User: Fold this.
Amino acid sequence: MGKVVFEDPIHHISGKIAKKFRTVYNYMKATGLKYTSVHGERSTQPSTKELKARERFTAVAAMVRARKIDLSKIVTDQEAFLAQKDTATGAKTMKAYLWRVCGQEYDEQHNG
Assistant:
């Protein structure tokens, strides 16, 4: 049996379309599934693991912002980025490279 899909002027909507409504329209590209969901307040407390992940993310983001404008490290970071960029596990963008480097520095400082 065939599947009929009518093409109106709008094929599908994805995301929130109005600020005052909590309904979000979702479209899954992989399956073609279309559905709505209503995002509400969180009903459970965040776990210790989640709180640590949030803390790490905040700290690493601050480190990346600071490192991007640190004139003493820009040239060495650019050289190191270009050296690793074409390797199999290399970061493909400078931002991804800085996140990796700063994340490793954070982990070394906080995990011993």
